[in-house]
Each structure stands twice: as structure tokens, then as C-alpha cells.
Amino acid sequence: MLRGAMMPVLQRRRGVMGALSGLAAVALVRPAGASTERLEAAIRAFAGDAPVGAGRVRLEVPPLVENGNAVPLTVSVDSPMTPGDHVRRIAVFNERNPQPNVITALIGPRAGRAALSTRIRLSTSQRLVAVAEMSDGGFWSDSAQVVVTLAACVEG
């Protein structure tokens, strides 16, 4: 009889423990301090007080990736790459990885074209932003949302 009376209590306890372990898993998957504010601060550190306009930059990344350990991305910038009009730097930033800076590439007019391709790690589904600094001091950007089904970069 005592066993029958204890069953509802045990079931509630298991439910609470399951909910707590689920919350702990979510806390471990999302890196501490990751936020849109950190993303914006990283972009400000790159561009300073200059306005960052949308356009001239094309960020290509799959919208859905199965494994966050090797996400392909390509950034290209519309520029003639002449001594008077060229791309100086290209940077890629992320919203939720432990570090908001993904890559910064220095480019000059002798590069021929302003483009880079690489693979990156993503901790979870998030927004990526590519920003290019032009030789005239202007900054242009593009962004993309990526859904990651198997996370990477979970070491805080």
C-alpha cells in the first residue's frame, strides 16, 4: 500500500528532475555572454564610428547545416580592385560563438578580386555578419541566418 501512495510523488520528482536537466543542457549549449550586443560591439571595434551600409558584400553560407564543426562560407565584395578603389579588409562576425570575431582578412589591390572562402565552427543557430572596409574609408556588409542541428564550440 505504501508503494502505491508513493508513486505520484516519485512521478512528480522525476518530472522536476527531467525539467531541470533539460534546462541545464540548454545552459551548456548556449555560450555564456553570447549576444547581439557582443556582435554589435565587435563590428564597432572593426569599423569604429563609421556607418556600415548594407550592400556590395555577399555572404554565402548554407541556411541549414547538419554539423557546426565545419560550416562552409564565402564572402565576396563588389569592387574593381584598382589602386584607387579596392577592399582593404574583410571580417566575419558571429552572434553566439564564445568569440564574436570569426576571421579578418587583409586585402589589397594586387589581390585581383575581393573574396575569401573558408570553413568555420558554429556553436548553435545564429546570425553571421560580413563587413568589408573599402579604400575610401566606407564600410559595407551582408548578413545571413544559419540553423545548426549539431552544435560545436560549446567549451566556454
Your description of this structure?
- With 156 residues, the chain is an alpha+beta fold.
- The chain has 2 domains: 1-30; 33-150, Sandwich (Immunoglobulin-like), CATH 2.60.40.2470.
- Helix content is 26%, strand content 38%.
- The chain has helices at 2-29, 36-47; strands at 52-54, 57-60, 64-67, 71-77, 87-94, 101-106, 115-120, 126-134, 139-150.
- Strands 1, 3, 5, 6, 8 and 9 form a 6-stranded mixed β-sheet that branches.
- Residues 45-153 form the Ig-like SoxY domain.
- This is Sulfur oxidation protein SoxY.
- InterPro entries: SoxY, SoxY_para_1, SoxY_sf, Sulphur_oxidation_SoxY.
- CA-based shape: elongated
Low-confidence stretches: 19-33
Please identify the top-level CATH class of the largest domain. Answer: Mainly Beta
CATH architecture of the largest domain: Sandwich
Topology as a string of helices (H) and strands (E): HHEEEEEEEEE
SS summary, helix count: 2
Number of domains: 2
Termini, distance in Å?
49 Å
Rg from C-alpha positions? 22 Å
The gist of it:
This protein has helices at residues 2-29, 36-47, and strands at residues 52-54, 57-60, 64-67, 71-77, 87-94, 101-106, 115-120, 126-134, 139-150. It has 156 residues and is α+β, with helices and mostly antiparallel strands.
